[in-house]
Design goal:
277 residues, Ammonium transporter fold, two-stranded antiparallel ribbon, 3% strand
């Protein structure tokens, strides 16, 4: 989930990695969200090593490893397995998706969302997803939300998080009416560490977001709607799958439209120049 550009500037480059590390520590100390610290270390090392190799071989330069660090920790938090190899494969797939699944020089999938979604779908017998909530630890939840909102505000993605949260709450109420569960039961996933990563990092990832504010708001609503449908059909990992389906398609359409506009503008400029000369 790359939040950092190739040459980050200023202290803000360290805020997202510090935030996700804090989220990991709060979750682990409060509820033991990790099966093992080794799994996180392996995920981070695999992600960073893959980033180093691919950036050097394919781009001819060394990229900042901040985004790989974030992806590695995300993988370590979000998946569960009794074996080590799923953590390595998920981390490697996450980073590789940035270099392989591209359109017009841009990667379409949020890296960790791609890796985690792929493994949860393709290896359900070996891999599971995190399903722990923060419970009544409101202090830890408040710290995460305050810092998370500051980060997305600085990244100019505050509207994405808020749009999704409002949409989720409204749809959770509708879902409670349909399935007969209580509203609190349907809305409670928002208090879990999985959703903190999802709404503060995955959905708001600048490189894989569409280019306009209006477009990002529409995409956030669409993701919430697709998740709503998937949840009604008993898909446990509905948010990941919803972003996996909606995000890349929206990015592809956005890149294609922008390319078309640029071609039209270039043609108009050429025509104007020809008339003037």
């Amino acid at each position: 989930m790359p939040w950092i550009v190739d040459r980050p500037k200023g202290y803000f480059q360290y805020v997202p990695p510090a935030f996700i590390t804090l989220l990991l520590l709060i979750g682990q100390l409060s509820f033991g969200v990790l099966d093992s610290y080794i799994n996180v270390v392996v995920s981070v090392c695999a992600a960073m090593l893959t980033e180093m190799i691919l950036s050097r071989v394919l781009l001819g330069k060394w990229k900042s490893l901040s985004s790989a660090y974030i992806s590695g920790i995300s993988v370590g938090i979000l998946i569960r397995s009794t074996m080590i190899w799923p953590y390595i494969i998920t981390a490697v797939l996450s980073i590789m998706s940035k270099y392989v699944l591209r359109y017009k020089g841009k990667h379409l999938w949020n890296p960790s969302n791609f890796g985690v979604s792929w493994m949860l779908f393709m290896a359900p017998l070996d891999v599971a997803g995190l399903s722990i909530q923060w419970g009544s630890n409101f202090l830890g939840l408040a710290v995460i939300w305050v810092l998370g909102l500051v980060i997305v505000y600085r990244a100019k993605r505050f509207h994405v998080t808020i749009t999704y949260v409002i949409s989720f709450i409204i749809l959770a109420y509708i879902r409670s009416l349909i399935v007969g569960d209580t509203f609190l039961a349907e809305v409670s996933p928002l208090t879990g560490p999985m959703y903190q990563l999802f709404i503060f990092f995955m959905m708001t990832d600048p490189p894989t977001s569409v280019s306009t504010r209006k477009g990002r708001i529409i995409v956030a609503i669409l993701i919430a709607l697709v998740e709503f449908v998937l949840r009604l059909n008993s898909f446990i990992y509905a948010p990941f799958y919803a972003l996996f389906l909606v995000g890349p398609l929206a990015k592809f359409i956005d890149l294609k439209r922008n390319a078309k506009k640029e071609n039209v503008m270039a043609f108009d400029s050429k025509q104007t120049y020809s008339l003037q000369t």
